[in-house]
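agent: user wants the full assembly modeled, not chains individually. Plan: 1) parse entity lines 2) check alphabet per entity 3) run joint structure prediction 4) return tokens. Steps 1-2 passed, four entities, 294 residues total. Proceeding.
--- entities ---
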Amino acid sequence: MDLSDKKTRREIGSSCACFNLRRAARLVTQRFDRVFRDADITANQFSILMASYNQGGILLTGLARTLGMERTTLSRNLSLLERRKMVSIAMGGDRRERRIAITKNGIAVLERTLPLWQKAQNDVLGLVGQKEWKALLRGLHKVAREL
Amino acid sequence: MDLSDKKTRREIGSSCACFNLRRAARLVTQRFDRVFRDADITANQFSILMASYNQGGILLTGLARTLGMERTTLSRNLSLLERRKMVSIAMGGDRRERRIAITKNGIAVLERTLPLWQKAQNDVLGLVGQKEWKALLRGLHKVAREL
DNA sequence: AAGGTAAACGTGTAATTACACATATTACTA
DNA sequence: TAGTAATATGTGTAATTACACGTTTACCTT
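--- prediction returned ---
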């Protein structure tokens, strides 16, 4: 490939899996976090809380896998939520283990944030279009399964 | 919606635009950056350099819009690349303006990183599947257009 | 039981991201 | 032209991300 050819460069930009996914993630995250502005949590924290709710008692490493997040990244994200009493991080029988669970307070935060999530979600789906979004979501699930 | 219902919670997780996009972006970025490990730049910097090449002389704000990146985010990303002589940040006739351009050195870095990009891109497309990827990419472009 | 291997996790460091706020410069308007 | 609005950008702060490296604990093999 010849980078001095502008057509080649544009093709790379418009097809790059990393760039296009990151850009879309940035744009959607911005939308969500603006809607979440007056909430007690970010959209990212909302996802972590929801996963902790669904997989109560799961190990840190397992939760990281579910979230497609590096273990150490999740560790730091959870520390913030633990400090704010939204999750508990308990030692398992195996003393290396960290068992993650959402707290009552975390559930309460989730519940009162849910309407904001619904609004942000509807906003984005409305702009993208239901049909287009369905196809997109299928692809995102495939990525999560395969990578 | 009732969060005490597990089915509801799982539905939220598997449909959330923000979570699913961010997770896919994380996974793909991890792949790319592992392939880029011995390169002089990250996958994100690769994208910024490529856009700076394509839009040579563009203003910071305009480039940020192209990249779907907050202006201040791009400002800091560009500072790193300027310090390493990969882009130039020049004042325009309007002294508020910052005109961004890739340098000769930046082009050289791009050229020798291109094979790594090609490998990472092929890896991801192979795992996701060409057909699935095409549909996904269309959706990502729609997101970038509409948000 | 000792020694080596594997598993689970934390810390140091640095890049990435963006909001709130502030500054500088230009354009517009009364 | 003085004052105001709009534009373009930078800085403070904090969350998010992940690699490299190190520690602790459990398991396994002899």
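agent: reporting back. Chain A has one domain: 6-146. Residues 42, 44-45, 69-73, 76-77, 80, 94-97 of chain A lie near DNA strand D (CB under 10 Å from a C1').
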